[in-house]
Design goal:
- The complex is a heterodimer of chains A (282) and B (798).
- With 282 residues, chain A is mainly beta.
- Chain A folds into two domains: 99 residues, Immunoglobulin-like, CATH 2.60.40; 117 residues, Immunoglobulin-like.
- In chain A, 9% of the residues lie in helices and 45% in strands.
- Chain A is built from two helices and 17 strands.
- Chain A starts with a helix and ends with a strand.
- Chain B is mostly beta strands and 798 residues long.
- Among the domains of chain B are: 112 residues, Carboxypeptidase-like, regulatory domain (Immunoglobulin-like), CATH 2.60.40; 372 residues, TonB-dependent receptor, beta-barrel domain (Maltoporin, Chain A).
- Chain B contains six helices and 55 strands.
- Chain B is globular.
- The chains are: A mainly beta (282), B mainly beta (798).
C-alpha cells in the first residue's frame, strides 16, 4: 500500500527538481554502536572490504561518524564481547579485526534468551534477544511482472519467495535480497532489506514478492529470511519508514534500539534461511 | 461557573431591555439580480447612530425600535446602498433587494456607506475574501482556489507546496473545521493538496474564524472555515464556466418557479491524465490521474415563513494503472435545511447533515481491496433571536454521530492474504450553546456565549487498555494491549464533558478606529492521525476514546482596527496567545493505517502558540490589494519526544509575509500579482550516523527535534485578465438612437504564471550516499516541486 502511495507521489514528483546543498550540521559526540546477529544455523553477511565468511554469530562494534564524514565503517578494536544464555553460560567472542567479533562454537537455539554485552574502557552497551521459532523458505523463483504487458520495450521480473506462516502467533520476518555480482570483495550487492509481519496472512501458505526494475534474465539473486522477534522487527520497520524520503516521508527520529548503555545497538537472535535463484526469461 | 448561573446572569444582563414598548421591522435582504440571500448586510438607523443590525446567514434581519419615523440604511460592500424611510407605528415586514447597478448604463457607483464594518463589528480574528479577490489572485495552474487565497491573509499559513491544508495561529491541519453548507469536509484537498475541493464557481460566501469563534461552532481547536454554496439564481437562467489547461468547469443555475425555487449545479474535472495518453510510454498511457467535483443545490420557498434547502457535494480523486490497481478517495456531503421564521424576532434553522470521506484501493491480480470510511450523521437546530436593538441572542443544539471504519481488507481466499476488518469506531458528539451580542452604550459591544459539549464513545466494539509507556534510549516503545473490554450496541465506554466560554468585546474609539479583545476555549473530539511530514489521503480520523483524550485550546487575542482616507485603507494589528492540551503526536515506528492497536503508538502533550498579525489593505480605486505580515511561534511539549523538552511544531514559522496587488489598467484589462515569503519549516537533521552493515546504509542519529530550518520560501505569482467586449451598440427601438447595451455573453481570458522568477522552494532536504567520488560520502539533497508554471484559462458567463 505504501508503495502505491509512493508511486502516486512519484507521478507528482515528475515535475520536481533536485539539487545538492551545503548544510552546517554540528557533529554529535562519537558513540559506540553495535550491530549483532545470532543465528540458529550458518548465515552470512557481505561486509565491504572483507571476504565473505559463514558464521552463526557476528557482532560488529563501530564508532559513529559525523554526517558528512566519509561513508565508511569505523571498527572498534579491543572490546570485550560476551553472549550469555538464559542458563548463565557465558560465551566470549574473539576479534576478527575491523571491529568484528565472533564465537565459532556458539549456535543459537530456539526459545533461548541471549544477552549480549560489549565493553571497552569502562563503557558498556548491552541488550537481550530471544530466538523465535524457525520458519524457512519453501520456494524462491522469478516471475514476470504483470506491468510488463504494458511496456513492449521492457520486461520486469518479480522475485517471489513462498513460505508457510505458523498459525496463531505473531511472526516477524527480516528479508534481505542480494544480487550476485562480480563485486571485488563479497561478490554480493544488497538490493533491499525489509521486514514483514503476519497481521494479514497469519497461518497461511503465503509469500513475499520483491519487485525491482533492474533484474534481468540470467541474474543470480539470493534471498535471506530471518524469523526475528518483535523488537528487532520494530527497529527495522522504523528504518524502512525513515528510508522513504521526500514526499510522504516520516518525521525523522531514532529507531528503537534494543541495546542500551554508553552507546546503542541492535541485537537480533533469529533463524536463518537462504535460497538463490536465477531470473528466467518468460 | 455552572450553567444555571450563567443563564441567570444572561437574563439579568438582558432583562432591563426586554420590556420596552417597541415595534419591529423584519425581512430578508436579497441580491436584486439573482435573488440570492445576502449575508452580513448592515442595516442601520440614520436617526439613531450606533443602532442597527446585520442580516444573518439566510439574509434574515429584524430590528426593534421605539415608535417613530426612521430612515433605514441597508448597505453591503460591492452593492449600491438603499435608504428606506418609514413610519414605525406597527410591526413591519420589509424585504429588500440590493443591486450592483449593473443594469444601469452609467458608471457603477458603489456606495456602501457602512464601510467601517470591520472597525465596528465585534468580530476579531475573522478573515473574509471577496469573489473578486478570489478571481483575480493568481494561483497554480490558473485554478482559482479559496483555501490557497486565504493563506495570503495574516494568521493563516499554507502547509506548503504538495501538502494539503493550512495552519491557523499555530494549530495543526486537523485543527480547522471546514464546513460546506454546514457539513464538515474531512479532506479538503485534491491531488495531495495541489487543489482544494471547493470549486469557487459554486461558492457564495466564505468566512474564516481564527480568533473569537462564535459559540454556534465547535469541534476543532483552531479555526472554522464556513463556506456557503450559492442557492441558485431565482430570477433567470445563467451559466458560467471556464476552460483551463488541466481542468474545466461549468455552473448552471436558474429558477424552477420564478422567485419561489431555484437550483444550482456546478461541476469540475481535471484532465491531466489525458496528456499521459499522448505519451509514447505504454505504462503512462494506462495511468489514470484525475479528480472531479460536483456541487448541487435546490431551494424552495413555501411562504414568507418557510424555506427548504437541499445541497450536496460529491468529489473524488482517481489514480490507477490500467486494471492492475486503482486508488481513489473523496468526500460526499449532503445538507437538508429548513428555515422557519417563528415571528418577527425569532428565526430558526434546522439542519440534517450527512458527511462522508473514504478511500479505497484495489489490486486486481490478488483481488485485494483496502478501504477506510468516516461517516457522520449530524443534526443541528439553531435559533436567532433579534431581541431588541441592543441584544441579539443565538442558541441551539447539535448532535453528531460518528461512524468510523478505520480500515478493512478484502481479499480472495487463495491470495496468500487474509481478509481483515478493523472494528468500526462509534461516537456521539453533542453540544448546546447560547450566545448574545449586546450593545452597551454606543461604543461597547459584547459578544458572549457558552457552549457545552459532551462526547460519548459508544459500542459495539472492543476497547483496549495499554501497558504504560516504556522509555529506552530516549525512544518510547509502542505499547501492547494489556486488557480488552467489549461493549454492546450503544453502550457508553467513555464520556467527556467540555465547557467552552466564548467572549468577544469591541470598543469603538471613533468612526475610524476600535479596540477588540476575545477569549475562546475550544474542544476537539476527533483527531487526524498522520505521522508523515505531509498529509496523505490514507490518513485516518479517530474519535476520542478511553485512551485519546479530547484536545483543548484556550486563546486570548486582542487587536486594534483603524480605517484611513474615507475607508479607502484598512489597517489592523492583532495579537494572540494560545495554549493547547492533549495534542497528539506519534511514537517512532507508529503505523497509522490499518492498525487496530494504533492507540498504543500515540503520545500526548501540550502546545503553545503566540503571534502578532499585521494587515494593511487598500480597498478602493484602480489599485487594490494588501500587505499581510505574521510574526509567530508554535511549540509542542510531548513526554517521550525530544527528552520531554519543548520543541518547534512542524507549522512553526517566525515570519510570514504576503503582498497582493490588483490593478485595473482599463475596464477590460486587469493585472494582479502576489508575493509571499516565509521562514523555512522546522525540520530535524541528523547530528551523525552509524554504519549499518546489514543494510549497507547509514542510520542517522537525531538529537533535537525540529531544531533546524529549511531555507526560506519566497515566490511571485502573476496574473492578467483580459475581458472580451462587454458592451455592444444597438438601436434603441423607441428613439432610434445608437445605445450601448451590455452583452448577454461575457467572457475573459486569464493568463497566470506561478513562481514567476523560478525560485526552487524547498519541499524537503534528504540525505543520501554519493558513491561517485573516490570515497563514498553523504550529501544533502534539496527537493523542489515546481519551477515556473504558466497557465491559461478561458472563463465565460451568460
Amino acid at each position: 500500500m505504501k508503495n502505491i502511495l509512493f508511486a502516486l507521489f512519484i507521478c507528482i514528483a515528475l515535475v520536481s527538481c533536485e539539487k545538492v546543498i551545503e548544510l552546517d550540521l554540528g557533529n554529535g559526540e562519537t558513540q559506540f554502536s553495535v550491530e549483532a546477529y545470532l543465528f540458529d544455523s550458518f548465515g552470512s553477511l557481505p561486509i565491504p572490504g572483507t571476504e565473505e565468511i559463514p558464521f552463526t554469530n557476528l557482532v560488529i562494534v563501530t564508532e559513529t561518524s559525523g554526517v558528512f564524514d566519509p561513508f565508511a565503517i569505523k571498527g572498534v578494536e579491543e572490546a570485550t564481547v560476551t553472549i550469555t544464555d538464559d542458563a548463565g553460560n557465558v560465551h566470549e567472542l574473539t576479534s576478527l579485526g575491523d571491529g568484528l567479533y565472533s564465537n565459532f562454537n556458539l549456535v543459537g537455539e530456539e526459545g533461548v534468551t541471549y544477552t549480549l554485552k560489549v565493553e571497552k574502557e569502562g563503557k558498556v552497551v548491552s541488550g537481550s534477544s530471544t530466538l523465535p521459532k524457525r520458519v524457512g523458505i519453501d520456494d524462491f523463483y522469478s516471475e514476470k511482472d504483470p506491468f510488463s504487458d504494458f511496456d513492449p520495450d521492457n520486461d520486469f521480473y518479480n522475485l517471489r519467495c513462498d513460505y508457510t506462516d505458523p498459525a496463531d502467533r505473531d511472526d516477524f520476518y527480516l528479508w534481505r535480497v542480494y544480487q550476485n555480482t562480480s563485486m571485488p570483495d563479497t561478490g554480493l550487492l544488497i538490493v533491499n532489506n525489509y521486514v514483514s509481519d503476519d497481521l494479514f496472512n497469519d497461518g497461511k501458505e503465503t509469500y513475499t514478492t520483491f519487485f525491482q526494475e533492474f533484474f534481468d534474465p540470467g541474474d543470480t539473486v539470493t534471498m535471506q529470511m530471518m524469523a526475528v522477534e518483535e523488537p528487532v522487527y520494530q527497529y527495522y520497520l522504523v528504518l524502512q519508514q525513515l528510508g522513504i524520503q521526500g514526499l510522504g516521508a516520516t518525521t525523522p527520529g531514532n529507531p528503537p534500539y534494543n541495546m542500551v548503555g554508553d552507546g546503542f545497538g541492535i541485537f537480533s537472535a533469529s533463524s536463518f534461511d537462504t535460497k538463490t535463484t536465477v531470473v528466467v526469461a518468460e | 461557573m455552572n450553567l444555571k448561573k450563567v443563564v441567570s446572569l444572561l437574563l439579568i444582563l438582558i432583562g432591563p431591555f426586554v420590556f420596552a414598548q417597541d415595534f419591529t421591522i423584519n425581512g430578508q435582504v436579497k441580491d436584486a439580480s439573482s435573488g440570492e440571500d445576502l449575508i452580513g448586510v448592515s442595516i442601520f438607523v440614520k436617526e439613531l447612530p450606533g443602532v442597527g443590525t446585520i442580516s444573518n446567514d439566510y439574509g434574515f434581519y429584524s430590528l426593534t425600535l421605539e415608535k417613530g419615523t426612521y430612515t433605514l440604511i441597508y448597505s453591503y460592500i460591492g452593492f449600491e446602498g438603499k435608504e428606506i424611510s418609514m413610519q414605525l407605528d406597527k410591526d413591519i415586514v420589509r424585504n429588500v433587494q440590493l443591486g450592483t447597478g449593473d443594469a444601469i448604463l452609467e458608471e457603477v457607483i458603489v456606495s456602501a456607506k457602512k464601510e467601517n464594518e470591520n472597525v465596528t463589528s465585534t468580530e476579531i480574528g475573522v478573515s473574509t475574501l471577496s469573489t473578486k479577490e478570489i478571481d483575480a489572485i493568481p494561483v497554480i495552474f490558473g485554478e482559482k482556489d479559496i483555501i490557497k487565497t486565504m493563506t495570503l491573509l495574516p494568521g493563516v499559513k499554507s502547509a506548503g507546496e504538495g501538502a494539503a491544508g493550512f495552519y491557523v495561529r499555530g494549530g495543526g491541519v486537523d485543527h480547522n473545521l471546514i464546513l460546506l453548507d454546514e457539513a464538515p469536509v474531512y479532506n479538503a484537498s485534491h491531488l495531495l493538496g495541489f487543489f482544494s475541493v471547493f470549486n469557487s464557481d459554486a461558492i457564495k460566501d466564505v468566512k474564516l474564524y481564527k480568533g473569537n469563534i462564535p459559540a454556534e461552532y465547535g469541534g476543532r481547536l483552531s479555526s472554522v472555515m464556513d463556506i456557503k454554496m450559492k442557492d441558485g439564481n431565482k430570477k433567470k437562467f445563467s451559466a458560467s464556466g471556464g476552460l483551463g489547461l488541466i481542468s474545466s468547469r461549468l455552473t448552471v443555475e436558474g429558477p424552477i418557479q420564478k422567485d419561489k425555487s431555484s437550483f444550482m449545479i456546478s461541476g469540475r474535472r481535471t484532465y491531466a491524465d489525458l496528456f499521459l495518453k499522448l505519451s509514447s510510454r505504454e505504462e503512462l498511457k494506462d495511468t489514470k490521474l484525475y479528480f472531479y467535483d460536483l456541487n448541487a443545490k435546490v431551494n424552495y420557498t413555501f411562504n414568507d415563513r418557510n424555506r427548504l434547502f437541499l445541497s450536496g457535494y460529491f468529489g473524488r480523486d482517481n489514480f490507477g494503472f490500467s486494471d492492475i490497481f486503482g486508488f481513489d478517495w473523496g468526500n460526499t456531503t449532503g445538507t437538508l435545511r429548513w428555515n422557519h421564521i417563528f415571528n418577527k424576532k425569532l428565526f430558526s434553522n434546522t439542519s440534517l447533515i450527512y458527511s462522508n470521506y473514504d478511500y479505497k484501493f484495489s489490486i486486481s491480480e490478488i483481488d485485494l481491496e483496502i478501504g477506510s470510511v468516516v461517516k457522520d450523521f449530524n443534526f443541528k437546530e439553531d435559533f436567532d433571536l433579534f431581541l431588541n436593538s441592543k441584544n441579539r441572542l443565538r442558541f441551539g443544539v447539535n448532535a453528531i454521530y460518528h461512524n468510523i471504519e478505520p480500515g478493512k481488507i478484502e481479499t480472495a481466499d487463495d491470495s496468500g492474504f487474509a481478509s481483515t476488518d478493523i472494528p468500526n469506531r462509534h461516537a456521539m458528539e453533542n453540544a448546546a450553546y447560547i450566545a448574545n451580542e449586546q450593545k452597551l452604550g454606543s461604543r461597547l459591544t459584547l459578544d458572549y456565549g457558552l457552549r457545552l459539549t459532551n462526547f460519548l464513545q459508544l459500542g459495539p466494539g472492543d476497547v483496549y487498555e495499554f501497558f504504560p509507556d516504556t522509555l529506552i534510549n530516549g525512544v518510547v516503545n509502542i505499547s501492547k494491549i494489556k486488557d480488552t473490554t467489549t461493549y454492546d450496541n450503544w453502550e457508553v465506554a467513555q464520556t467527556y464533558w467540555g465547557l467552552s466560554p466564548r467572549l468577544g468585546a469591541s470598543f469603538v474609539l471613533n468612526e475610524q478606529s476600535s479596540l477588540k479583545a476575545a477569549y475562546t476555549r475550544t474542544y476537539q473530539y476527533i483527531h487526524l492521525l498522520s505521522n508523515t511530514t505531509s498529509t496523505t489521503p490514507t490518513d485516518i480520523w479517530l474519535p476520542s476514546s478511553t485512551n485519546i483524550k479530547p484536545q483543548i485550546s484556550t486563546q486570548y487575542s486582542a487587536g486594534y482596527f483603524r480605517n484611513f482616507g474615507n475607508n479607502t485603507y484598512e489597517f489592523s494589528v492583532e495579537g494572540y496567545y494560545k495554549q493547547m492540551k492533549n495534542v497528539v503526536d506519534y511514537k517512532v515506528g507508529a503505523v497509522v493505517s490499518l492498525n487496530d492497536e494504533v492507540e498504543g503508538s500515540l503520545l500526548y502533550g501540550k502546545g503553545r502558540a503566540y503571534g502578532l498579525e499585521l494587515f494593511f489593505k487598500k480597498r478602493k480605486g484602480d489599485l487594490t490589494g494588501w500587505l499581510s505580515y505574521t510574526l509567530a511561534k508554535s511549540e509542542k511539549q510531548i513526554d517521550g519526544l525530544n527528552d520531554g523538552d519543548w520543541y518547534n511544531a512542524k507549522q512553526d514559522r517566525l515570519h510570514d509575509i504576503a503582498i497582493v496587488l490588483m490593478y485595473d489598467i482599463s475596464d477590460r484589462l486587469n493585472v494582479s500579482g502576489s508575493w509571499i515569503y516565509h521562514t523555512g519549516n522546522a525540520v530535524t537533521y541528523p547530528s551523525g550516523y552509524q554504519y549499518s552493515v546489514g543494510t549497507n546504509q547509514p542510520i542517522f542519529i537525531y538529537e533535537n527535534r525540529n531544531s533546524y530550518r529549511l531555507p526560506s520560501t519566497h515566490r511571485l505569482d502573476l496574473g492578467i485578465t483580459y475581458k472580451n467586449k462587454e458592451f455592444k451598440m444597438t438601436k434603441d427601438p423607441e428613439t432610434g438612437e445608437q445605445v450601448k447595451v451590455k452583452k448577454k455573453f461575457q467572457s475573459n481570458w486569464n493568463l497566470s504564471v506561478y513562481n514567476a522568477y523560478g525560485r526552487q522552494n524547498p519541499y524537503s532536504i534528504d540525505f543520501r550516499i554519493n558513491a561517485s567520488g573516490e570515497v563514498p560520502s553523504i550529501e544533502a539533497v534539496q527537493l523542489a516541486l515546481f519551477k515556473v508554471v504558466p497557465a491559461i484559462t478561458y472563463n465565460f458567463k451568460f
